[in-house]
């Protein structure tokens, strides 16, 4: 019965896929699995618990996808599980050291943890990656400025 409920939830989420705004707009490719697509949808709908479950499952079958680890970090951070969030961002960045969204989100995690120096280091990395600017740099700079102001 629980398995049927889970399958039904995943199916509904995958059928109601929309643009992902809360965690950034990732372009979907035909290789995106149902778990990954459903997790993005769950994040859009702020169902971070469901997203974490789906992304954990996905990380077991697609451990080399930095986007999976980045979204797992994002959803874990939104649930307040900062250790798991940090570990997931670190995994994403080990797979792609220039993953701009993971750099942004990890910087936001560091600000949440009052680690201003680590957040600044990630902000500097984004500035080097985006000399002409990018959404991730703008977002982290804004979060950093708000942190300093408070």
Describe the structure.
With 150 residues, the chain is mostly helical. It is built from 8 helices and no strands. It has helices at 2-15, 34-44, 48-61, 66-78, 82-95, 100-112, 116-129, 135-149. The protein is globular. The termini are far apart.
Which overall shape is indicated by the principal axes computed on the Cα atoms? globular
What class do helices, strands and sheet pairing give? mainly alpha
Radius of gyration of CA atoms, rounded to a whole number:
16 Å
| Count of helical stretches | 8
Oligomer: single chain
Overall pLDDT, averaged? 85
Question: Uncertain segments of ≥5 residues (pLDDT<50)?
Answer: 1-31
Describe the structure in brief:
By secondary structure, the chain is mainly alpha-helical. It has helices spanning 2-15, 34-44, 48-61, 66-78, 82-95, 100-112, 116-129, 135-149.
Quickly list its features.
disordered N terminus; mainly alpha; 72% helix; 150 residues
Please specify the SSE layout and strand pairing.
Elements: H1 2-15, H2 34-44, H3 48-61, H4 66-78, H5 82-95, H6 100-112, H7 116-129, H8 135-149
């Amino acid at each position: 019965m629980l398995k049927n409920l889970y399958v039904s939830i995943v199916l509904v989420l995958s059928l109601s896929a929309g643009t992902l705004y809360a965690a950034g707009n990732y372009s979907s490719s035909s290789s995106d699995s149902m778990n990954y697509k459903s997790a993005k949808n769950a994040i859009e709908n702020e169902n971070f618990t469901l997203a974490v479950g789906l992304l954990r499952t996905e990380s077991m079958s697609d451990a080399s996808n930095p986007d999976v680890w980045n979204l797992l970090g994002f959803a874990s951070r939104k649930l307040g599980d900062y250790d798991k969030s940090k570990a997931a961002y670190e995994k994403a960045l080990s797979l792609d050291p220039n993953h701009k969204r993971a750099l942004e989100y990890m910087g936001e995690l560091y600000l949440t943890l009052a680690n201003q120096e680590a957040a600044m280091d990630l902000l500097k990395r984004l500035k080097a990656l985006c000399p002409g600017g990018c959404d991730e740099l703008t977002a982290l700079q804004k979060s950093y400025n708000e942190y300093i102001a408070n």
